[in-house]
């Protein structure tokens, strides 16, 4: 019993506790729900307030933008309106000006019409007078024809024939007298000018040979120049392209070669080597290279000095260089620079005697043979080549024509051209001034070298022993030993087919292989 009561009391307690707990939970849920509703309402109110604020801001912003655009539009309209008003005022002014001009034109047109009427009246009066004059003239001619029994055309032809015969007779007589007098005077005057010119510009001439003499202090130096087994002299001949003759001539060494530039390079190189005392193949090549560079500088200096001496100014630098090259060229044995200087002086004197431009004539005389020193081979005659060079470097047209016409390759178009031709003939025709054999001999040697240089692999080529030996230096990398022998044969065959020469020519092909290193 007691236990049962206890159990029943416990169950009842549990039920009561559950009911109380449910009541409390339900009460708590209602509070939470009410709080959530209040919070949602608060959020909605805040959102509505925020939306209203944003809406008001956007409306204000739109109104401001509208007002700004309206102001800009009104300002633009005002500007355009002002421009239209201004343009309208200008148009009115222009209309007034055009109106005034039209009135002036109408007045002028009226004046012109009045003048035109006056001129027409005057022309009519003149026409009437002319008709009256023609009538009177025809009447008088008709009366004369009746008296002379000749028509007007017949009388005119008779008078013309009489005057023609008389004029021809007198003209023929006068022309013959004038021509005879002109020929006599011209011949005397030309002889006088030429003789005066020759006397005033007399110059000594010496034919250039193909050898130069290098003087030494003692014969002991000859051994150093020859070197061990002749290697020094061979190196010097290979580098310069001349023949060095060391014989029993006391205190002298002969330098033989047809090219004056090569002989001068060899002479100066020998002078420097002897002064320095160090003579060996490497030193020889170094000295020869420096000497060739110095010769080029000397050529320019000679050209400038010649122009200053003759008073020829404004020459192109390349023409000045060509004038300097003339110092080392000869024409039939006559030094080309001395010949050109003399021709320039002769031209200046003749031009002055004839009342022409002496400076222009002197310039043409100096440049008349520049075609002979052109560094490249050309198929043109030297006069035409010189004319093209002068034209290229903007020389005066009269100078260009004088250069091209001094051997009659082109037609002479100025008075300076025959002066240059006559001066060239005077300078070259003096006794002892030139030697024909020398020029043909030098040309043959030059053609011999050019023939060998036309083969592939040939670096240098030198004609020796007056053309009896041809030394050919080849590139060791491109020409081997077998090819060197074939090259020598091919050159000899081409010489036999294309050249004429006395005796025989020895062709020596030199192929030298060098290995050079430096110890550091």
Automatic annotation (TrEMBL):
Gene Ontology cellular component annotations, sorted alphabetically: plasma membrane
Keywords noted in UniProt: Cell membrane, Coiled coil, Endonuclease, Hydrolase, Membrane, Nuclease, RNA-binding, Transmembrane, Transmembrane helix
Entry's transmembrane regions: 6-25
Keyword Phosphoprotein assigned: no
Protein localization: Cell membrane
InterPro entries attached to this UniProt entry: HD/PDEase_dom, HD_domain, HDIG_dom, KH_dom, KH_dom_type_1, KH_dom_type_1_sf, Ribonuclease_Y, RNase_Y_N
Any Pfam family hit: RNase_Y_N
Parts forming coiled coils: 30-136
Domain HD: start-end pairs: 336-429
Alphabetized GO MF terms: hydrolase activity; RNA binding; RNA endonuclease activity
One GO BP annotation of this record: mRNA catabolic process
Flavoprotein as UniProt keyword: no
E.C. no: 3.1.-.-
Bilayer topology term: Single-pass membrane protein
Main location, first listed in the record: membrane
Family as reported in the entry's similarity comment: Belongs to the RNase Y family.
Main function: Endoribonuclease that initiates mRNA decay.
Protein name: Ribonuclease Y
Gene from which the chain derives: rny
């Amino acid at each position: 019993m007691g236990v049962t009561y206890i159990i029943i009391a416990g169950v009842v307690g549990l039920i009561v506790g559950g009911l109380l707990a449910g009541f409390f939970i339900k009460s708590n849920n209602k509070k939470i729900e009410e709080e959530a509703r209040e919070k949602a309402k608060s959020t909605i109110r805040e959102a509505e307030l925020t939306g209203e604020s944003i809406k008001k801001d956007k409306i204000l912003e739109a109104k401001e933008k509208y007002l700004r655009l309206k102001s800009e539009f009104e300002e633009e309209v005002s500007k355009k309106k002002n421009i239209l008003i201004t343009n309208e005022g200008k148009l009115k002014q222009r209309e007034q000006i055009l109106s005034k001009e039209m009135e002036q034109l109408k007045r002028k047109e009226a004046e012109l019409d009045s003048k035109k009427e006056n001129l027409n009246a005057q022309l009519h009066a003149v026409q009437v007078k002319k008709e009256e004059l023609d009538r009177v003239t025809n009447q008088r001619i008709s009366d004369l024809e009746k008296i002379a029994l000749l028509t007007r055309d017949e009388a005119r032809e008779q008078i013309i024939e009489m005057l023609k015969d008389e004029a021809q007779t007198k003209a023929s007589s006068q022309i013959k007298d004038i021509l005879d007098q002109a020929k006599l005077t011209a011949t005397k005057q030309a002889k006088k000018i030429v003789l005066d010119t020759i006397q005033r510009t007399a110059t000594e001439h010496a034919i250039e040979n193909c050898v130069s003499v290098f003087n030494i202090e003692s014969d002991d130096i000859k051994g150093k120049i020859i070197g061990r087994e002749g290697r020094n002299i061979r190196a010097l001949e290979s580098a310069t392209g001349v023949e060095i003759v060391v014989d029993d001539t006391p205190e002298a060494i002969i330098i033989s070669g047809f090219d004056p530039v090569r002989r001068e390079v060899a002479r100066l190189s020998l002078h420097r080597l002897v002064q320095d005392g160090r003579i060996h193949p490497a030193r020889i090549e170094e000295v020869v290279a420096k000497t060739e560079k110095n010769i080029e500088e000397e050529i320019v200096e000679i050209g400038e000095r010649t122009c200053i001496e003759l008073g020829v100014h404004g020459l192109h630098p390349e023409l000045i260089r060509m004038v300097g090259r003339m110092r080392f060229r000869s024409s039939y044995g006559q030094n080309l620079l001395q010949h050109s200087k003399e021709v320039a002086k002769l031209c200046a004197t003749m031009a002055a005697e004839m009342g022409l431009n002496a400076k222009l004539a002197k310039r043409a005389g100096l440049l008349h043979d520049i075609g002979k020193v052109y560094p490249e081979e050309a198929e043109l005659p030297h006069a035409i080549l010189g004319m093209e060079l002068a034209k290229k470097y903007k020389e005066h047209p009269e100078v260009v024509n004088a250069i091209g016409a001094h051997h009659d390759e082109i037609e002479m178009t100025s008075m300076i051209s025959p002066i240059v031709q006559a001066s060239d003939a005077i300078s070259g025709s003096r006794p002892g001034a030139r030697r024909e054999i020398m020029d043909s001999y030098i040309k043959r040697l030059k053609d011999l070298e050019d023939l060998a240089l036309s083969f592939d692999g040939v670096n240098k080529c030198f004609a020796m022993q007056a053309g009896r030996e041809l030394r050919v230096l080849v590139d060791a990398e491109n020409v081997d030993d077998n090819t060197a022998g074939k090259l020598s044969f091919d050159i000899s065959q081409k010489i036999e087919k294309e050249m004429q020469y006395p005796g025989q020519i020895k062709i020596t092909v030199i192929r030298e292989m060098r290995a050079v290193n430096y110890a550091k």
